[in-house]
Write a structure and sequence with these properties.
The structure holds two protein chains of two kinds.
Chain A (H helix, E strand, L loop, with lengths): L6 E9 L4 E10 L4 E5 L6 H8 L7 E6 L2 E2 L5 H5 L2 E4 L11 H6 L14 H13 L15 H14 L4 E5 L7 H18 L2 E5 L3 H7 L2 E6 L2 E6 L1 H4 L2 H8 L3 E5 L6 E5 L8
Parallel strand pairs in A: 3-8, 3-9, 6-7, 7-8
Antiparallel strand pairs in A: 1-2, 1-4, 4-5, 9-10, 11-12
Chain B lengths: L1 E4 L5 E4 L1 H23 L7 H8 L5 H36 L11 H15 L3 H23 L6 H25 L2 H12 L7 H20 L1 H7 L3 H6 L4 H23 L5 H13 L6 H21 L8 H24 L1
Antiparallel strand pairs in B: 1-2
Classes of the chains: A alpha/beta, B mainly alpha.
């Protein structure tokens, strides 16, 4: 492959205790891309993300970070290179926004290095970039879902990693907050030059925000590349089993998937 | 939040409130300690107590302070601190505010060990050793049933409840096997008591605290990451399974050591971390403040148990049970009222 990729999965077999989710799955995340992984439920997209983030150990194959097996690298080194926003993050009772964001500095801190000037600056910048600076002293459990998700993204940003993985960052959010969070991701990608990998459910969002799309079905890559080239009616039928027409998004010009299944009496 | 930085790039950060609370608790422990050593059938003034501690008391005073009252005081403080540390760690790792070593069956395991010794007629040293061994064995049993990766949330709670239910049954059976006198001794032990505790109880407990305290405090930072969920902690670079095993192991040993010295004193492990969190208003496990709070709580409870009724002394477990339970009910009621 011609493009550079610091993060790759090489012939991965991914499995939970009994269920094998993917076999011989090979993917590469192009540097400085906003890569979005799509696919139907249970296709293995979140599992793939968890393997890339080393929260799931592949049964076979290797995840390579800068050319080395991610499980042999010191965990602090990985934590300074690759951040993750999982679906399972829990905010401790009563913690404030600033305190939670500050916990993203963990891999940069130590017993005698508890709060460096860099920690202070990066936490402030992360809160500013995600628009939660005004909420700094508010308890996280009093925030709305959209605000809370921005706080978690701020925490992941504070980790200061060139690569950031997001597992379904828009689930549970209403449509306005979904767009807000994705706009934020697009801005972080464009302005800060970070490589982003997100698992998304919504094809329309994926096609609109991704610079690189990976479509999975049954643990296999069905198509990947620029969404303008990749998202076709054939692909959607192949991956999701949905008949559709593709039109240009009137706002961005990116592919917009319009389901063809007609309600009787309307067309 | 206060930050101290050196030119070499080192930095320390602390919050004012936990520091104030911690200092206040330590001072309170000293004041109660002087009161505890000074009071009793042979009253001594605080000045006498300090003079005797400095080694300039009469032989009688030296004996009363050095051999009777001081070891009891030290046992109370150390057991309170050990139970509170154990409770704070378990509550954080289970992500459950009702977590404590009792929920995991550690305390019941210690009781099983102690009861076996009571039934077979062993001495108090054997009883302590058996309690420590019993609690440790219960911890190892849980570890064996769940596996290293299963030491999380609901699974751990369920296995712990199962283990503690089985052990409670065993303990009941052992009690029915004991002759009446031994059964009375066993029930006193099961309530938790500091009566007649000497250096042979205080010494090993202090050793356990000195050895395991640093194990916990050294992982306090990692614990604040684990609090955010396993995946988040892994992403932050914390070896979650290893940290959790070390912390739970140390917590189980501390609870067992406390039970070996003072019996399974109820509610201190549960209540002290809650109280510390409310007082400090700081997120996170608050290990140091919890330990100091626990030490003060158990000492205060023991003073009450000794002095509240002129004609008779109570086992300290009665006091912690009554007050701990009442505090918990009040806490839940206040929280509910706050919601409505």
């Amino acid at each position: 492959m011609s493009t550079e990729a610091r993060l790759r999965g090489d012939r991965l077999t991914l499995a939970y205790e009994r269920r094998v989710v993917a076999e011989a799955l090979t993917v590469a995340v192009p540097d400085r891309s906003f890569t979005v992984v799509i696919g139907p439920n249970a296709c293995g997209k979140s599992t793939l993300l968890r393997a890339l983030a080393r929260t799931l150990r592949p049964r076979a194959g290797t995840v390579l970070l800068d050319g080395r097996d991610i499980h042999t690298l010191p965990s602090r080194v990985v934590a300074r290179t690759l951040g993750l926003l999982p679906q399972t993050a829990v905010a401790p009772d009563g913690i404030t926004v600033a305190d939670l964001v500050a916990r993203g500095r963990y891999p940069h801190q130590g017993l005698l290095r508890q709060w460096s000037p860099a920690d202070e600056r990066v936490v402030a910048e992360s809160m500013a970039a995600t628009g939660v600076a005004d909420l700094a002293d508010r308890p996280v459990d009093q925030l709305s879902g959209g605000q809370r998700q921005r706080v978690w993204i701020a925490m992941a940003l504070a980790q200061e990693t060139p690569l950031l993985l997001l597992d379904e960052p828009t689930t549970w959010l209403d449509v306005a907050h979904q767009v807000e969070v994705l706009d934020l991701c697009a801005r972080l990608h464009a302005e800060q030059g970070r490589t982003l990998v997100a698992v998304l459910h919504d094809l329309h969002h994926a096609a609109r925000y991704a610079t690189h799309l990976i479509a999975l079905r049954d643990g296999r890559v069905v198509a990947e590349g620029d969404p303008r080239a990749v998202v076709t009616a054939d692909l959607v039928r192949d991956v999701f089993g949905l008949d559709c027409r593709i039109v240009a998004d009137p706002v961005t010009g990116t592919p917009l998937v319009v389901p063809a299944a007609a309600v009787p009496g309307r067309r | 939040m206060t930050v101290l930085r050196t030119r070499a790039g080192h930095s320390l950060r602390w919050r004012a409130r936990p520091l104030v609370v911690g200092t206040a608790a330590a001072l309170l422990a000293v004041a109660l300690g002087v009161l505890a050593v000074g009071g009793g059938d042979y009253p001594m003034s605080p000045a006498d107590v300090l003079r005797t501690l400095a080694g300039r008391g009469s032989p009688a005073e030296e004996f009363i302070v050095g051999e009777l009252r001081l070891p009891r005081l030290v046992t109370a403080l150390a057991a309170g601190a050990a139970l509170a540390l154990s409770g704070a760690v378990v509550q954080t790792l289970l992500r459950n505010p009702l977590g404590s070593p009792d929920v995991l069956g550690i305390t019941q395991g210690a009781a099983t060990g102690a009861l076996v010794v009571v039934v077979t007629g062993g001495g108090s040293l054997a009883l302590s050793a058996a309690a420590l061994a019993g609690g440790t064995a219960a911890g190892l049993l849980i570890r064996a049933v769940t596996g290293a990766r299963g030491l999380t949330g609901h699974r751990l709670i369920l296995v712990g409840i199962g283990v503690s239910a089985v052990l409670t049954g065993v303990n009941g059976w052992l009690l029915t096997r004991a002759p009446l006198m031994d059964a009375a001794r066993a029930v006193l032990w099961l309530t938790g008591s500091l009566d007649g505790r000497g250096w042979q109880q205080a010494g090993p407990l202090l050793l356990a605290l000195a050895a395991l305290g640093p194990v916990l405090l050294g992982r306090a930072r990692a614990l604040t990451a684990v609090e955010l969920g396993d995946d988040t902690a892994t992403a932050l670079g914390v070896p979650v399974d290893r940290v959790r095993q070390a912390l739970l192991g140390a917590a189980a040993l501390l609870a067992s050591a406390a039970a070996a010295a003072a019996g399974p004193v109820s509610f201190v492990a549960l209540v002290a971390p809650h109280l510390a969190r409310r007082l400090t208003r700081a997120p996170g496990p608050n290990l140091v403040t919890s330990a100091l709070t626990g030490a003060v709580l158990l000492l205060a409870a023991d003073l009450l148990a000794q002095r509240a009724f002129a004609d008779r002394q109570l086992p300290v477990g009665v006091v912690t049970g009554v007050f701990g339970g009442a505090y918990l009910v009040w806490l839940l009621a206040a929280r509910r009222a706050g919601r409505n």
